[in-house]
Design brief:
By secondary structure, the protein is of the alpha/beta class. It is built from 17 helices and 22 strands.
C-alpha cells in the first residue's frame, strides 16, 4: 500500500545501518509525518512512496539511528557555557588567571562560576583553596566545581555569604575540608556540602532557563544527539520552574531534540512531589517525557568520595563517602517502586554498588508488580560477583565509555591492579547479559557520541579485553539507551513505525579506522524526519 501523506519524504542514495536484525542494511527510507513508513531497497521504498513525496539525496553518506545519551546534565552544560571553562587548566596559577580575566570582562558579575578543573592535571597535585581563589576576588563569591561535579572550591566571600565557618557541622552525606590546626574551612566542599553554596547562585527565570536549554539542546543536536536523558531537575524546590521551562519549549516546538528528564529526588518528600508531577502532567508529545527518580549512593573516583569496599591505595584513611545508610536507601527505592516509578542510582564504588543492588533486590521482592527497569548510573568499580548479581536482577547499567581516556591515568593508583580488572568492564557486562546504555555525563565529559564510540572500541589501550566491537558500541548509544528509558518501541533502530530520528555521517562507523572515528563530524541530524542542524 502506498503512503498518501503530503508530508512524506524519501531519503535515498545512502548506506542505511538500521540496527534492525530483519534488514541490517538498506538503500532508502520513507518518512511520513515524524515516523518511518518504509525502509529497504530503493525500488521497494520508491514504490511505497506517494508521488508528491519530497526526494532527499544523501549523496552516498551513511545513516545510523539517532544517538541517545542515557545520562547527562543538559541544564548544567548550558549554564557552564556561560561560566569559565576550567577543563584545560594545568595549575592553580592558570585557574587564578582565568578567573581574573573573566572578572575583567564581567565586572558586574554577582558570582564567578567555573567548572572542569582536575587536580590530577595540576603540577602541584593539590586542591585549590579559599586563599587561592581570594586572589581572583575578595568581594564577589567564586565557585569553581571540579570536573567530577562532586567537589567545589570556593573563596572566602562565598564561605562568608553561605554562613560556613569553623562551627558549621558537616551535612549528612558530605564534608567541609578544614585546616587541621585552626579548624577553619579551607574552601573545599564535598558531596552534599556543595548544596550549602547553591543559594549564592542567582536563580534563572523561566525565560532564562528556556534560552539556556535551547542553546544546549542545539549543541547536542550538532554532534548527532537526537535524544538525551537529562538529569536536570534537582529536588522538589526547582521542579515546577524547570518543568515549566521544558513544557513551554516542547509546546512551542522549540526543542530540537527529545528530552527524557531524570529527577534527583533525595528525600521521601521529594519523591512524593515528583510522583504528583508525573501523575498531573499532560501528554507532552514525543519531545518531552518525565523519567526516573535519580538518587546518589556515593561520590566520584577522582575526588576519592566514591564508596569503596576497601580503602583507597593513595588515601588509606578513607573508603569514600556513602550518601545514605542502607536503611535510608532501601526506604527511598521502595517508595519509588511502590509508586511504580523507575529508579536510577548513581554508584561508582563497589561498596555503593552493593548497597544499590541490595535495595533493588528488596524492592523487587516487596513489590512484584514494579514494572520499571532499575538502573545503575556509572557502575565503574565492580567485582565479578556484583556484575553477575546485576544480570540476575535485570539491572540496567548506564555507562560512560568516554570516562576511560581520562580516568585510566589514575584508576590503578586509587584502587590497585586487582580491583581494576573489573573496572569499567563493559564487555563482561554484555557477555553476562546486562543491558547497557551509553552516556557521557556531560558536562563532566564531552557529549559527542562519536568520542564515546571510539572510547568504547579502543579504551585508549587500557584493559583491551573489555573493548567492545564497533557494532556493540553503536548499539550502546542507540538501542541500549532507548531500552533503558522504556522507549525501545519508539527509538533505537530504523524500523517502520518508529520515530524518524537519524544521523547522517561521512563514513560508516562500523568500518572506519577506529582512530579516525572520533574525528568525524556529523553531516546532518534529523529528528522526526526534520533536519535540525545547519
Amino acid at each position: 500500500m502506498q503512503a498518501t501523506n503530503s508530508e512524506s519524504k524519501l531519503f535515498y542514495n545512502a548506506n542505511f545501518i538500521t540496527l534492525d536484525d530483519r534488514y541490517p542494511r538498506a538503500e532508502a527510507m520513507l518518512v511520513t509525518g515524524e515516523r518511518i513508513a518504509a525502509i529497504g531497497t530503493l525500488e521497494a521504498v520508491t514504490t511505497a512512496a506517494p508521488v508528491e513525496a519530497e526526494r532527499i539525496d544523501l549523496n552516498g553518506l551513511t545513516v545510523v539511528p539517532g544517538f541517545n545519551d542515557s545520562h547527562l546534565h543538559l541544564l548544567n552544560w548550558g549554564l557552564s557555557m556561560a561560566g569559565i571553562d576550567l577543563t584545560q587548566v594545568r595549575s592553580i596559577h592558570e585557574m587564578i588567571a582565568l578567573g581574573r580575566n573573566y572578572l575583567q570582562t564581567q565586572p558586574d558579575a554577582r558570582v564567578i562560576m567555573g567548572r572542569g578543573w582536575s587536580d590530577e592535571k595540576f603540577d602541584s597535585k593539590r586542591l585549590p583553596n579559599r586563599w587561592d581563589l581570594d586572589q581572583i576576588a575578595r568581594d564577589v563569591p567564586v565557585l569553581f566545581t571540579r570536573v567530577c561535579g562532586h567537589v567545589c572550591a570556593v573563596n572566602s566571600k562565598a564561605l562568608e555569604l553561605a554562613g560556613i565557618n569553623a562551627n558549621t557541622d558537616n551535612p549528612a552525606g558530605g564534608s567541609i575540608d578544614r585546616d587541621p590546626l585552626s579548624g577553619e574551612p579551607t574552601g573545599i566542599l564535598r558531596e552534599t556540602a556543595i548544596e550549602l553554596i547553591y543559594k549564592l547562585i542567582p536563580t534563572p527565570s523561566i525565560s532564562e532557563l528556556k534560552g539556556i536549554l535551547r542553546g544546549a539542546a542545539q549543541a547536542a543536536a550538532a554532534v548527532g544527539l537526537t535524544s538525551v536523558q537529562a538529569n536536570d531537575i534537582q529536588g522538589a524546590a526547582g521542579l515546577s520552574t524547570q518543568l515549566e521551562a521544558y513544557r513551554q519549549l516542547a509546546e512551542a516546538d522549540e526543542l530540537p531534540i527529545r528530552v527524557n528528564l531524570q529527577a534527583s529526588m533525595p528525600t521521601l518528600s521529594d519523591i512524593t512531589s515528583y510522583l504528583a508531577a508525573v501523575e498531573g502532567s499532560r501528554d507532552f508529545g514525543t519531545y518531552l517525557a518525565l523519567g526516573p527518580v535519580k538518587l546518589y549512593a556515593d561520590g566520584s573516583l577522582g575526588a576519592k568520595t566514591a564508596a569503596m569496599s576497601e580503602p583507597y591505595l593513595d588515601a588509606p584513611e578513607t573508603r569514600g563517602v556513602p550518601i545514605y545508610s542502607q536503611p535510608e536507601l532501601d526506604e527511598l527505592v521502595l517508595a519509588a517502586a511502590q509508586a511504580d516509578l523507575q529508579v536510577a542510582v548513581h554508584a561508582i564504588g563497589d561498596w555503593a554498588l552493593d548497597m544499590v543492588l541490595t535495595s533493588y533486590a528488596k524492592a523487587k521482592a516487596a513489590v512484584p508488580a514494579w514494572s520499571k527497569r532499575p538502573r545503575v548510573v556509572h557502575c565503574q568499580i565492580a567485582r565479578l560477583e556484583q556484575l553477575e548479581r546485576m544480570a540476575e536482577l535485570r539491572v540496567v547499567a548506564d555507562i560512560q565509555p568516554i570516562f576511560v581516556p581520562t580516568d585510566r591515568h589514575f584508576v590503578e593508583a586509587r584502587i590497585g591492579t586487582t580491583r581494576a580488572r573489573y573496572a569499567y568492564a563493559w564487555k563482561t557486562m554484555v557477555e553476562l547479559g546486562i543491558a547497557t546504555a551509553g552516556s557521557s555525563d556531560c558536562p563532566i565529559e564531552n557529549c559527542n557520541p562519536l568520542l564515546g564510540l571510539q572510547a568504547a572500541i579502543t579504551r585508549d589501550g587500557w584493559h583491551p579485553e573489555e573493548c567492545l566491537t564497533p557494532l556493540a558500541a553503536l548499539k550502546l548509544f542507540t538501542i541500549g539507551s532507548a531500552y533503558a528509558a522504556h522507549e525501545e518501541n519508539e527509538k533505537g533502530t530504523l524500523s517502520p513505525g518508529k520515530l524518524a530520528d537519524f544521523v547522517v555521517l561521512p563514513q560508516d562507523p562500523l568500518t572506519v579506522e577506529k582512530e579516525a572515528l572520533g574525528q568525524m563530524e556529523v553531516a546532518a541530524t534529523y529528528v522526526g524526519g526534520r533536519r535540525v542542524t545547519q
